[in-house]
Amino acid sequence: MTTQRTEGSLYTSIVNGIATIEFGHPASNSFPSSLLDRLTKELHRISTIEEVSVVILKSEGEKAFCAGASFDELVAIDNLEDGKKFFSGFANLINAMRTCSKLIIASVQGKAVGGGVGLIAACDYVLATEAASIKLSEISIGIGPFVIAPAIERKIGVSGLAELTMAATEWKNAYWAEKKGLYSKVFETSKELTKETEYLAEKLASYNPEALTEMKKVFWVGTDNWNSLLLERAEITGKLVLSDFTKKALSKFKK
Q1: Quick one: which of 50, 54, 138, 229 is 20 to 30 A from 213 by CA?
Q2: Is 158 part of a structural domain of the chain?
Q3: What is the CATH number of the domain that holds 173?
Q4: Residue 53: how many CB atoms within 10 A of its CB?
Q5: Is residue 164 part of a domain?
Q6: What is the pTM assigned to this prediction?
Q7: Per the structure, how many domains does the chain have?
Q8: Which among 16, 26, 15, 18 has a CA at the least distance from the CA of 3?
Q9: Greatest Cα pair distance in the chain
Q10: What is the pLDDT of residues 173-182, one digit of tens each?
């Protein structure tokens, strides 16, 4: 499955029970709404394919893993309905990852910001390189990581979420993320990352797929309310993005 480069790209390959999904976009692998929607639908599709046991989620290139939501679309929001719809993109994606019947391994080769951190947190197991620093900058522009907060809190706790949110202009390095529990292992190079990701996926794919599916359910116990919770958070963010403070902040960033 592929998309045109102007909207970003999405490619899926299935080999020996492993579905590898790779996304990309010229703007640091950020997500326009159309690409978010395509990835969400792809995860729903993969969830139903019996021969798939595990998913590897990765992004293109050697630099950024994911810069979050599309900045161009963000600055164009001028009403509540569009604001809620925009932020619902990551809500729907996280819920698709949560309810996917397959274990999802993230292969994180570079930096992640905002929604990119939420994407990582919604994976079941994460491998990364030393270059995979993270940042939540939302509070600095007058909004907050409301939609992705439940996924991040689930991995690193309230204190970790608070530290990451309050340090809005600071990068936290990969070893900080590993210590907090967001990353399971950190490697020096992308080559090592790729090798270890493939090895883990192959090992998992050799296990009883029914056991993997049941284990996935255990990992996500207590999140049944996320279908409504994340959409409520999207509406909160949609309101805040219309504030004078946020409009002025976004204007400065745009310049």
Answers
A1: 229
A2: yes
A3: 3.90.226.10
A4: 24
A5: yes
A6: 0.95
A7: 1
A8: 26
A9: 54
A10: 999 999 999 9
